């Protein structure tokens, strides 16, 4: 079955061994399919998705001289990483408080510590 894809469309589909991206083409009735196959490693699935984002959404990612989304695979959860990191992760699981100048606004974090 051929999907109906416009020139500016990007369709991402999960496959059993990775990811498939369908993008529009400048030629009528054509589209481009790109496969991002997972490595057979513990982080292969994550790295395949990371490669997909870097290739198809590079304008939105951080570069040496421009800000943007920072994409990386980390082996430890943020609760187990060193405190040296500049980012203070969420101090409340219920609201968006998570940076040094933000505090919990919903009050649930204070009640959970009791």
In which order are the strands of the major sheet placed?
1-2-3
Uncertain segments of ≥5 residues (pLDDT<50)?
none
Give the number of DSSP strands: 3
Helix tally equals 2
Q: Mean pLDDT, as a whole number?
A: 76
Rg, Cα atoms, Å: 20 Å
- Order of helical and strand elements: EEEHH
How much helicity do the residues have?
10-25%
Strand portion, in percent? 15-25%
- General shape: extended
Q: Termini separation (Å)?
A: 56 Å
Overall tally of structural domains: 2
Helix-strand category:
alpha+beta
| Main beta-sheet strand count, sense and barrel state | 3 strands, antiparallel
Describe the fold and architecture.
The structure is a single chain. The protein has 114 residues and is of the alpha+beta class. The chain folds into two domains: 1-73, no CATH class; 81-114, no CATH class. It has two helices and three strands; from the N terminus they run βββαα. The chain has helices at 44-56, 108-112, and strands spanning 10-15, 18-24, 31-37. It has a three-stranded antiparallel beta sheet with strand order 1-2-3. β1 and β2 (18-24) form a beta hairpin. The protein is extended. The model has no long low-confidence stretch (mean pLDDT 76).
